[in-house]
Amino acid sequence: MLHFLDVFSGYGKTEILKDVTFSVDPGAFVGIIGPNGSGKSTLLRTATKILEPFAGEVYLRKDKLKEISLKELSRIAAVVPQDMLFMFPFKVLDVVLMGRIPYINRLGFESKEDLRIAFESLERVDAIGLKDRFIDELSGGERQRVVIAKALAQKPKILFLDEPTTHLDISHQVEIFSLLKKLNKETGLTVVTILHDLNLASLYCDELILLSEGRIKKQGTPNDVLDYKTIEEVYKTRVIVKENPITSCPHIFLVKLQP
Q1: Looking at domain 1-61+197-259, what is its CATH homologous superfamily?
Q2: Region label for 16, one of left (φ > 0), alpha (ψ between -120 and 50) or beta (otherwise)
Q3: DSSP type of residue 189
Q4: What are the Cα distances from residue 223, in Å, to 42, 171, 247?
Q5: Is the pLDDT of residue 163 over 80?
Q6: Phi, psi (5° rounding) for residue 77?
Q7: Beta carbons within 10 angstroms of residue 213's beta carbon
Q8: Alpha carbon distance 184, 97 (integer Å)
């Protein structure tokens, strides 16, 4: 589905990603992890054509990303940012219909099919009851579900998310990632998400890509990647890693340093 081959990327003349190669299979749920400044956001921006690589090649499905038009890309991939800003207090249904822009005719009017897909997308994220509410009236968790519904209305094959639960409390974090996992399993949607919380990454991701100083330090299943030696080396902090007795996933405990 997504392939990076010997990719170098960054901003201006500053190189952030360095010789990055990996593949994401169709239907995978992949977490991009790493400390601040490791290149996570640069990777996401390169994968979504915001940044053009200095060298190397990015493929989406079997096509070179640089040869895919933005309109065609928006029918294949959707992005959920950390925090989506709205300049006006749009109604929820209107926000979700924004996801249909790649398909709307030249006159700019949505069809009955566009409306059907918008309603279907709201139902998938259990937010149909919010359709007539204003987006600025919603709680953080409700708002994020609506933004995900907007992305689903694009009918993407792959969904990119940039730390989608950063500003949410723990219950809403679990709610959003459980929703994403359900979509992944039930519809085959490929999910690639940046996460800071290693325990969320362990619980929900099938595969992890750990970045350090712009390079891939390690990739594989959570059990492969989240060992204490690797975490301590990359994050420069002491941890204990134990098996979660309920899920059998690795769970990371911070070790308090003595003053």
Answers
A1: P-loop containing nucleotide triphosphate hydrolases (3.40.50.300)
A2: alpha
A3: -
A4: 25, 24, 12
A5: yes
A6: -125, 145
A7: 13
A8: 22
- Distance between CA 161 and CA 142 in Å, rounded? 16
Q: Are 131 and 149 in contact (CB under 8 A)?
A: no
Residue 44's nearest CA partner among 182, 191, 165 is 191
Give CA–CA dist 207/188, Å, rounded: 15
For residue 199, the tally of other CB atoms under 10 A from its CB is 16
Locate the domains of the chain by residue range.
1-61+197-259
Distance CA 57, CA 118 (A): 34
CA gap 237, 235 in Å, rounded = 6
| Distance from chain centroid for Cα 105 | 28
In whole angstroms, what is the distance from residue 190 CA to residue 195 CA?
16
> What per-residue confidence (pLDDT) applies to 111?
85
Q: d(Cα 149, Cα 98) in Å, to the nearest integer?
A: 10
pLDDT in tens, 4-24: 999 999 999 899 999 999 999
Strand pairing category for 2-11 and 55-60: antiparallel
